Amino acid sequence: MAVPPRRVELLLPHPDQVRGTTKSLRTSNTPRAADAGRRLLAFPAYATQRVADSAASYARDEAALFARNHEARRFGEQVGELEARVDALAARIEALGPRVTPIR
């Protein structure tokens, strides 16, 4: 009496996919077993990348720890504008220097 091969469900995502899918594996089928092995070996890197992406997304969007590109660019522009205004003010103060007598 022949025993049919058992089915094992793998819930690991394929490295090329963003979302995981459920794949069936016949224990007697070598190519599927090799594919399962490759997925198991790729899982730590996949999990690490997902955790890092989630942490970066949280820090940027929820906790506002990091600035977005356009925010950082605008901040740099504002710093440049402020620097120009401070330099103009310093020049005006220097020009007033000879006209002001010190108080004693």
Description:
By secondary structure, this protein is mostly helical. The chain folds into 2 domains: 1-66, no CATH class; 67-104. It is 59% helix and 8% strand. The chain has 2 helices and 2 strands, in the order E-E-H-H. It has helices at 30-62, 69-96; strands at 7-10, 23-26. Strands 1-2 form a two-stranded antiparallel ribbon. It is rod-shaped and about 110 Å long. The N and C termini lie far apart (115 Å). Residues 18-22 have low confidence and may be disordered.
How is the topology of this model organized?
Elements: E1 7-10, E2 23-26, H1 30-62, H2 69-96
Antiparallel strand pairs: 1-2
How many individual β-strands?
Answer: 2
End-to-end gap: 115 Å
| Mean pLDDT across all amino acids | 77
Number of domains: 2
- The helix fraction, in percent, is 55-70%
Sheet bearing the most strands, described?
A: 2 strands, antiparallel
Radius of gyration: 32 Å
Which range does the strand content fall in? 5-15%
Tally of helical segments: 2
What's the shape?
A: rod-shaped
> N-to-C SSE series?
EEHH
Q: Are there runs of 5+ residues with pLDDT below 50, and where? A: 18-22
Class inferred from helices and paired strands: mainly alpha
Biggest sheet, strands in spatial order? 1-2
